[in-house]
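Protocol step 6 of 9: fold each sequence in the batch and record its structure tokens directly after the sequence line. For illustration, a two-sequence batch is reproduced in full.

Sequence one:
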Amino acid sequence: MERLLLTIIIIAGAGLSAVSSAAGRQYYFVYDRKNFTEAQRYCREKHTDLVTVDSMEVMKILNNTADLSKMFYSKNSSRAWIGLHADSWRWSLSDPSFYKPGETEFRRWGVGEPNGGYSYKVCTGMGSDGFWYDSGCDTSTYPVCADVRGSDVTFVSIDTRMTWTKAQSYCRAHHTDLPSVRNMAENQKVKEAAGGNNVWIGLFRDSWKWSDGSNSSFRSWKVGQPDYNNRNETCVAADFSQSGAWEEWPCDMERAFICYGPVVSNKVMMKVKFENKKNLNLTDPAVMEAMLKQLKQKLEGPGLDDNIKLSWRKQADGKVFQQEDKKTNKRRRKREEL
């Protein structure tokens, strides 16, 4: 009966908080409190981005990993930022060369506008007084189209009512696009072209979007959320005292956050000793594979997850197994007894 020494290589996630084997992602809870923008910057510098939660599997992983004792605040404890946020207003004509610095931010909202929070009111009209209002995109309104030729821009009124989306398609097919209003002079020109009507302009707002640009439509809102009561509540946190249900919050609040990145592998070598009582052929690949499976089952018990991978490490002589030196073993036992 042989006593044999062998070395196996264990590959596992290094320093991980949680791993999704299906998505191939590693999730990191960061308990240093930051606002949404700071958290986003940290995740992009250190990992990939703020977490995109795109399935119940990910929700379960995050719930099992969250440490509520590290998310205790004076108010609204147990929350952590995820990557979902409401996008800002932007223009239908997206060519950056069309805008000088600051021109994409020009606004001429009427009193109390926009008043839809982050609800269905995500398109913009101009009233007959030249002030803007937010509106549901499926409302039928006259559009104004823009013709852009170099630095020259002219505005054309269309005498057919249509939804914002149809107006955008019409303007792009027959002109350049819906109008981008970059300054007060252009605001006046669009007002004049409208001829006293309320008209569509090119400003619109995307609804909720993920920080990394993912297009996942998975949502796990808390009951009653989002409530759209506060226009400043444009970032999303998960409440881990309520199974990670999502809530909208002002982005300047400071709290823990969750990053994600690719799974990082770490190799660990371990020497294992066993007795070949059945005189197995240890060079048989099937025998070696069966031994690895048994070893993996034993290792999973102490806490290693399903993502560990085991492989044999060959010695300098090309062999995996080495017979134990009895003299060396006796000296080792004597040292242990002293």
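Sequence two, same batch, same settings:
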Amino acid sequence: MKKVVILSLALMLLTAGCSLTGSKEGGFSLFKNKDELSAEEAKIKAADFIDNNLVQPGSNVTIKDIIEEDGLYKMTVVTASGQEVVSYLSKDGKRFYPQVIDIEQVEAQAKEQEAANQESETVTAVNLPKQDKAKVELFVMSHCPYGTQIEKGIIPVIETLGNKIDFELKFCNYAMHGEKELKEQLNQYCIQKNEPTKLIAYLKCFLEAGDGDGCLTKTGINKSKLSACFSATDKEFKVMEGFNDKSTWLNGNYPKFNVYNDDNVKYSIGGSPALVVNGQQVSSGRSAKSLLDTICAGFSSQPDECQENLSSDNPSAGFGMATGGSASNASCN
């Protein structure tokens, strides 16, 4: 029985085209002429092929506006319902392409969308409450690839703005990456609490490969003070106790990390990462330049450092210091 498909489904054949010559093993054995076709011959053969193989019986198509383009015949196929579909036929009549994607057009549209997203982010940032010293709170999960991505983007901003901002690293109130994440977040919380001047150095090391133990040594963290803080914080917020009792897990799926639970509730944090500037959650790109622009929108009067030319490259998601990551708002939630 002849296989009948709707013309719109012919897009499935896009990458390879439809063979009009075929063989005994399969394909369509309609035409055997190997010479190049005239435009009129191409119209006839394309219409015959479509009518017999790509549309419902009796739903004949017509061909109009046939021209030569890039070594192919470009034509407009008009269906029985009046729908027009631009399609292509090889000049020898052997391959029919229901549709061809214009790569340059698709790439241009993607760039326009990215520019529109950045513009939208800028508008959002402009509406931030203003302060003389911007307050920046970044909520992440320590092993979320999108959390580490934005951390790599914001570190140059923190180094650039220095004491012009009040920065604090915070954590979501649940963990999606197991026991290692809970323990790492306790460590980072305690480093920030006890030795805040070493936090950025530690993060830069940790973000390279996720080697927390190695980075504690490399950056000279006081392990005795860290251990005491770890134990006290764990006891206060029952982090590991909750990990060992799955009845306390969020929706039965994820252990809780309640160190910053009040702030999570206050700002309606829904996943990692989330950026809060001057008490308002705000959307931003993840390159250093985008984050600098977003944060600087929170100043009553922008300091000179806001004019620094930071990288517009998006860091890669996950560990490692490569660039070329997506500018999307992907998150762990």
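Proceed to step 7 once all outputs are recorded. Observation for sequence two: The radius of gyration is 30 Å.
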